[in-house]
Amino acid sequence: MDVLERTASPRGPPGSELWFPPGDFPFPVLAAAPVLWFHGRSVTVVCWGTPESFLYHLETLENSTYKVVEKKWGFQTKAEFIINRMDADTAGCYRCRYKKQYSWSERSDTLELVACMVSPSSLLIKAARVARLGERVSLQCGSAHVPLDRYSLAKDGEAALSQHQNGGHRGNFIVGPVNTSFSGNYSCYGWYSGSPYVWSAPSDALELGVT
Fold first, then answer.
1. In whole angstroms, what is the distance from residue 39 CA to residue 210 CA?
2. Using one digit for the tens of pLDDT, what is the confidence trace for 7-32?
3. Which pTM value belongs to this model?
4. Which residues neighbour 146 within 8 Å (Cβ) at sequence distance 6 or greater?
5. How far apart are CA 138 and CA 210, in angstroms?
6. What's the CA gap between 51 and 41, in Å, rounded?
């Protein structure tokens, strides 16, 4: 499986590793990198706090409730949590928070981790391989054998979780008006609406050129 993650990016001035606005309890930031992971490998998730933080909690969503899955003690600006194996059981929504002095910070924004199968994909992606500047391009994704009902479009290996379509077992994506930045390799993923964090393997890539 691969893992795709989405989270808000930390903000900082050039040359800085991370910057927080002033305040007693800066908002924590939860992130995972790199974006893609393979089946059987662990995933490292980092929670950013403050140098005075002495306890960090990593939480995951289970049955509509966030539960603590791991704790890290010790004064440190960030805490690293290792998810030993990313699969259908560990994919999902994560948050973190830290404790400083006698109080807890707010919880971070949600980090969504998606497990992607590495078995051969049955998905196909179709589109015109060449488009003219200013045109809109239709890309279709579907499977003749697996009745998936959600799809995500990826460009050069980067998929956005919010870009999904329900087209009756077929995803239809319209991109554009296109310019040269739209040139690249497109592929798609599929999943069942009842299991939003377990995706199929990606389709073979389709190269799109813009002239």
1. 35
2. 333 433 334 344 444 457 788 999 88
3. 0.75
4. 122, 123, 190, 200
5. 14
6. 30
